[in-house]
């Protein structure tokens, strides 16, 4: 395992980033290296990972390790889990790897949907668990889960991709409550449409979206990290006024006392 000789990197520790070969993951890698983190970059494409790693080593003087892994393969996933569970140098996990599928629920390829669920739900859950269990015993660390605003837009999409992102939002919120007393930070980032390769890989033409809906990846990551610096637990890079999110959260929480009761609601009772 590589260790840094720079004081800044020693202070920050190491960030493990999934989906680090391009897009959001590669941009986070750049920003975190700039902040002095050593890096473990995880993705399937070793050649692209090595290109990112070489540039960051040269530009920022940090230690960058490449770990090739297909997170839909249980053997590859287990190796990353083991690293997170045992390596105390890793102070930040960025759960970023993910994909989407084209088409409506009925028209979609169910095998591709299953693969997406494995990457978007099973893999980040297992990685978060491995990191969280260790970090909680150490009393420090941070986990950033990349979600999507589609978590709140089920009616607009097929429900499969947005469902995986709703799961990650739910998990992140539960993790925040559980891990905050142990000194572990959890942030969920909910970007809107972001200009990355995920669309092309899914066969979706991003240029068909209104230009005002699509954010550049640099702007998205910089906003997400600004939210992290401000102590946000949920960051929506495009949302102009967080009061809207706070109102949504307050309305959701207000439902809780009446969601489980020992009698049915009056409207369901016999007249």
Automatic annotation (TrEMBL):
Q: What's in the keyword line of the UniProt record? A: Fatty acid biosynthesis, Fatty acid metabolism, Lipid biosynthesis, Lipid metabolism, NADP, Oxidoreductase
What domain of life does the native source organism fall in? Answer: Bacteria
UniProt-listed InterPro entries:
NAD(P)-bd_dom_sf, Sc_DH/Rdtase_CS, SDR_fam
Q: Name one GO biological process term.
A: fatty acid elongation
PROSITE patterns in the cross-refs: ADH_SHORT (PS00061)
What GO MF annotations does this protein's record show? oxidoreductase activity
Annotated pathway, please? Lipid metabolism; fatty acid biosynthesis
- The residue range of the signal peptide is none
Q: Which Pfam families match?
A: adh_short (PF00106)
Family the UniProt entry places it in: Belongs to the short-chain dehydrogenases/reductases (SDR) family.
Protein name according to UniProt:
SDR family NAD(P)-dependent oxidoreductase
UniProt organism field: Pseudoduganella rivuli
């Amino acid at each position: 395992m590589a260790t840094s000789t720079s004081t800044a990197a020693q202070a920050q520790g190491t960030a493990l980033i999934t989906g680090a070969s391009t897009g959001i993951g590669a941009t986070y890698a750049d920003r975190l290296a700039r902040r002095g983190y050593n890096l473990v970059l995880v993705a399937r494409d070793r050649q692209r990972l090595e290109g990112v790693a070489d540039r960051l080593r040269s530009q920022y003087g940090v230690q960058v390790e490449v770990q090739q892994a297909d997170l839909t393969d249980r053997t590859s996933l287990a190796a990353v889990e083991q690293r997170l569970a045992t390596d105390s140098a890793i102070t930040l996990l960025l759960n970023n790897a993910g994909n989407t599928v084209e088409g409506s629920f009925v028209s979609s390829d169910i095998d591709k949907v299953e693969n997406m669920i494995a990457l978007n739900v099973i893999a980040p859950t297992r990685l978060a668990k491995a990191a969280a269990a260790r970090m909680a015993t150490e009393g420090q660390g941070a986990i950033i889960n990349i979600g999507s605003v589609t978590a709140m837009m089920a009616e607009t999409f097929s429900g499969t991709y947005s469902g995986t992102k709703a799961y990650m939002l739910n998990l992140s919120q539960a993790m925040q409550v559980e891990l905050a007393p142990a000194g572990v930070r959890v942030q969920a980032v909910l970007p809107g449409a972001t200009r990355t390769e995920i669309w092309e890989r899914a066969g979706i033409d991003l240029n068909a979206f209104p230009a005002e809906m699509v954010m550049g990846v640099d702007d998205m990551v910089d906003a997400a990290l600004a939210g992290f610096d401000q102590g946000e637990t949920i960051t929506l890079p495009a949302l102009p006024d967080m009061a809207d999110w706070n109102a949504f959260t307050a309305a959701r929480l207000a439902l809780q006392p009446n969601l489980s009761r020992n009698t049915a609601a009056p409207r369901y009772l016999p007249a």
